[in-house]
Amino acid sequence: MSPTSYAVIGSGYRSGYFLRIARALPERFRVTGVVTRTVERGAEVTAEWGVPTFRTLDELTAADRPEFVVISVPWSVTPDATRAAVQRGIPVLAETPPAPDLDGLRALWADVGAGGLVQVAEQYLLTPSYAAALAVVRGGVIGSATSVQLSSTQLYHAVSLIRGLLGIEFERAEVSARAFVAGAANPSTRQGWTGGTTPQRLTTTLATIDFGGRMGLYDYTDNQWRNPIRTNRLVVRGSLGEIVDNEVIRMLDGSTPVQSPLLRRHTAGDLTVAGLDLEHISLDGRPMYRNPFNGAVFPDDDIAVAALLEQTGAWCRDEGPAPYPLAEACQDHLLGLAIGESVASGAPVVTGTEPWAL
Predict the structure, then answer these.
(1) Which CATH number describes the domain made up of 4-121?
(2) How far apart are CA 350 and CA 294, in angstroms?
(3) Fold type of domain 125-294
């Protein structure tokens, strides 16, 4: 098979994720080029990643047209960059969120929604631990999922996990949220390890999302996923059991509740020379998740992003379903915005039925 080919518009922090994956797996991914604003920045990207750069999308596609383009630019620029690609008939994988605010989401959907050319780079449901939990839920192991409690990532990312694990589509929801401030050390940031132990004032946001019979509990503290003194937590409750982080509790029969771990198997271990590479995650000896990039020694987030890239390529070739359509990402951000609105107002926010849900 030919490698999945894509181009990247933008050269910031997140762009490096898509370039790093292609460099690690050239037999499966190929970057045709990167669009940068300046020649100087283009030279830096070429020197670091060994890929050609261009100033415009037209120059890039004239040189080597990719299967799709990854839009990895600031929030305010993403909608126009997405429109420009769609106008040229180029499929898009846009970074999250696809537009900054509700008006922007509505306008973007009005312009490009009907064309069906836009996917969104929401990778968390493809992250190994969450993908394994999703397989447990979809396999009916805990019965029908009724609630998700998540303390892991922020806003639209968390909403995508809550909706995915509950099987929620575009249902109306009531969101009630509050924010609290407390001191905590914050020794690691996007810029790297600081080692700081002086407590900083960090905000924790708690929100309930009532979908009418099913609910989500959102719990996030500033910089949580980078902070080594703050852990991730997941509880999925179902009609016949629940998932608590890496444990699954369910009824084996009418008189036997049982508890089993979700076990991660890695290649590394005592007296081996292999790298620490995820092979699979299993429940009672049955694989719930297999690493599609075993051998690349990727961290979990890179595994998820690579899976999203590969699925987007398959979708472009009509060889697979749409990985994460624009409508899904718009709904995620709608609910994320409702969390912020509820915090600001101190009152519940009820979401309506938006155009992408029709």
Answers:
(1) 3.40.50.720
(2) 43
(3) Dihydrodipicolinate Reductase; domain 2 (3.30.360)
